[in-house]
Amino acid sequence: MIGQTVGEYRITELISDKGGFGIVYKAVHTLLEQEVAIKVLKPKFTADPEFKERFVTEARTQARLKHPNIVTLLNFLVHDEQYYLVVEFMEGVELPSGGRATTLSDLLGSGPLAQDRVTSIFRQVLDGVGFAHRQGVIHRDIKPLNVLFTAQGLPKVADFGIAKILSGETSVSLSGARVGTPAYMSPEQVFDKKLTRSTDIYSLGCTLYEMATGSLPFKESDTSSMMEAHVSEPPTPPRQVNPAVSEQLEQAILKAMQKKPQDRFQNCEEFAEALGESKAEQLRRVVVPSVLGKGRAEAEELLRQAGCFCRFAENESSSDVPAGKAVRQSPAPGDFCEADSLVQVVLSSGRRRSTLPPDTCPASRTDRESDGGPAVEARRSAAPTVGSRAPTSEYSDRRQRPNRTRSSSLRAAKIVLGVLLGFFVLVTSMLICTAPRLPQYSRSSSSPQPSSDSKETALGAPAPF
User: Residue 285 is inside which H or E element, if any?
Assistant: First the structure.
């Protein structure tokens, strides 16, 4: 088919012909020049008339699976009675020894992976499969060959829904072939029972076993013996195969491979939690350094070196921390936080400014108690004279504040005294005006003679004594 055009895609090269249900080609979109992978299903799987209806139904389901760890389905095509699946092209990650590992199976070709890398890759696989489960989609054929890598090393699960397209709700395809790979097949698939997401959990356990130990959980030479082992035999403990496997990882693998579905993890989230905290996650946890008492620039640099970002909040007054220095921070020093987290820092604005009474003002008390030394003379000489411009510094402002308070008090006292004095004068005047006048007596007469009746006396001779 190389060189042929299917729809809007021109097939350029063969990728793999080892699949049990189809052949994978590399192709290019004729207009967009986008590289894609096209999987061609073999004609024997499309002989049933019901296949087309099932194919379209699953195509709609697959279109909903948009996740970073799932290979994106781009198109379903029917061309000359052939069925084609168009997916994103996975270039594969470059290996240190040269070449590329397109699948997880390629990566395991040289033996088991380091445990940190095992958990890192497998957690992402669980994320993709768990997302599909929440959408109601079961993979049914999870294995290392169906975990592909981008050029950046991102793992993605491929071929979701292919098994269901081929077999419906059972484990046997329309051609009579059993869907699934014997080395990773769950006991339910062996017995041809209705499949649930527990089937994928079992296959994931087998895949993780191979990643951690470099070998399959069961090594029987023929398919029948392999399937019988999945049903009745426990796997060899991973630590006996590879002592570098941790006890926690071993327990997670063995639980996922329990024979009864109810004894396994019930979902991918439980499986991921059982793996514990990965080294990558531990490395992302940082200890928050103390920036208390540090300036803005120094606080930013300390937090940057620790892997955190700094955000400064509104300043607050402090009697102990100088202005411009950190007085509080959240999270507190010594706490753990995720790398690249924000640490909020509050800077001090210095002492709180307040008006003090004259007796408690340090400057006034010092001036009164001093004996006129040089320091006092210097402060007095710095005071503004009449007509001069008032000092503008913060210290001068504090020095002048008690004097302004004293002047205001004197003005208020003068006003009160003036009001009282005016009231006293008014009352006195009213008493004088309303009092009766007393008659005047002459020494020469015993009868009273008011001086106002004698015009001559008033104007001429002097009044008698």
Answer: strand 285-287
